[in-house]
Amino acid sequence: MISHSSHRHPRHIITTNNWTLVGLAVLAMLLGFMIVFLPLPVVAGLLVATFLLLLLFIQPLFGIALVLLLGPLGAIESLSIGPSYPKSGQILFIITVCTWLAYGVVRRRIDIPRTTLNLPLFLFIAAASLSLVGGESLWAGFKEVVKWIGLFVAMLLVTDLTLNWQPLDSNRWLWRRIKAGIDIRWLAALILMAGVSQALLGIWQFGFRGDGPDHFMILDRYFRAFGTFQQPNPFGGYMGLSAALAIGGLIGALIAIVRARRAKKNVTVADWLWLFFVMGCSVVLSLALVMSWSRGAWIGFAVAMVALVFFLPKKRWQGLFLTLVAFAIFLVMFQNNLLPASISDRLASFSTEFLIGDVRGVHITEENFAIIERLAHWQAGADMARDHLSTGVGFGNYEIMYSQYGLLNWPHPLGHAHNYYLNILAETGVVGILAYLIFWIVVIVQLVRLLGRLDWPNRGLALGLLAAWTALSVHHFFDKLYVNNVYLYIGVMLGLQQVLAKKDG
Questions:
Q1: For an engineered disulfide with 371, which of 204, 208, 318, 353 has Cβ 3.0 to 4.6 Å away?
Q2: Is residue 64 part of a domain?
Q3: CA-angle at 385, arms to 241 and 372, nearest 5°
Q4: Rounded distance, CA 72 to CA 88, Å?
Q5: What is the pTM of this model?
Q6: Span 223-235, average pLDDT
Q7: 16 is a domain residue
Q8: Is the pLDDT reported for residue 399 higher than 50?
């Protein structure tokens, strides 16, 4: 760091306040020229862009909030500008990272947070990169590696900006009005609001839009919710991640307020606002999850709630007791047709459909088309893994190699194996799948340890994260959720986990 002493060189110092006035004067002149010479829509667009850049300059986490909101638009943008071009969320993420790094350069100190996940995440990226040596397409693999690097950077950036962010001059009038760091609940709120924005769109698509793709129709009346994902299954998985975090936050807020009132401690307005906020998020996100009609997302979320109930008490025997009671209640409701018939029928058919085995020669009908298609892609992935067991066919190369392994009735690839573990094994081999599993084991172990030390309401957020990672892990048996910029969302959630760990430490 460089320290300038004002009493040594008083004539040569231009303060940050002076620079601020100069900048405002220049902006005022530019605004005048724009209003005179440019069309009003262009002026409005430039003003919005300037305002966003100013927010990034003040606190780059504003950029992360916008990245989370714009990220899921990637699927729609791919249809209009093509899949090869960077999307708005990705561009804004790059700008945010550059702002973060620029501050470090100016201050001559770039802080890279040391977290428990740095090493295992680096090892997975290294293993995935190693698989590209013999891969068919280096470009396809490079794009996948960049996604994971983006996830890594998002985690580090959020951790640093939440805990350590310091403006260049905290004594000036502008900075006194901006808090350098962001509270944990604010960070969680940014994550949840991104999910809620998609959830509201999905609810509208299901109940109020009135039309949609024919193959999305259910119950002869409604259309499956899909948000801007263009597909209900990844949308449902995204809702499951968000709903799990919201429900964990809700439990944490409730218990914290109840304990505070019992202890006759003051409950602030912020505590009540947080409670009502996470309550609303939980309801909206859970509704959107149901309306996605995604069985993989439902099962992932159900297992996530089991994990949440099991780890809710600090004593594991109490958690086990609560889990058994909850399972018994669900079983009784299921056996006695107390659940909505449409939901119970959809869940009941799930287990039988996956008992088909080898799908070559299976008679394809309108009812089993989707499941046979998925199983055919599983078989192709298994064959790739068998032939390239050590380092796989190359990260991101499943779709490219599919033409060599696809079954006769299924010549067109779906982009991935619809089982991410099988997909990773096929693309990166045993080395890659082991590195991937180790990374997520470290994530879960870190959370379990935190649950033993954190107090409410932060313990609720840790519970929500544990439930979210459980939902992600289970859903990955049926789909791939590192799509449509969800990897940046996951990176920010991992950043929230590291903030909880640092606050506890």
A1: 353
A2: yes
A3: 65
A4: 10
A5: 0.85
A6: 92
A7: no
A8: yes
CB–CB of 224/292 below 8 Å?
Answer: yes
The answer on pLDDT for 344 being more than 80 is no
Residue type, 287: L
For residue 56, what are the domain limits? Answer: 35-110
The yes-or-no verdict on residue 180 having pLDDT over 80 is no
Token pair listed for 284:
């909206």
Number of domains in the chain: 1
> How far does the chain reach from its first CA to its final CA, in angstroms?
26
The Cα-based distances of 223 to 75, 207, 218, 292, 349 in angstroms read 19, 8, 6, 9, 20
Q: How many residues does the chain have?
A: 505
CB 391 within 8 A of CB 432: yes
Please check whether residue 475 is in contact with residue 237, taking contact to mean a CB–CB distance below 8 angstroms: yes
Bridge partners, residue 218, by sequence = 222
Q: How distant is the alpha carbon of residue 83 from its chain centre?
A: 20
Is 81 among the domain residues?
yes
**Cα–Cα dist 224/216, whole Å:** 5
Q: What are 20-54's pLDDT values in tens digits?
A: 556 556 666 666 666 666 666 665 666 666 667 66
Computed over every residue of the chain, the mean pLDDT equals 82
Instruction: Determine, yes or no, domain membership for 146.
Output: no
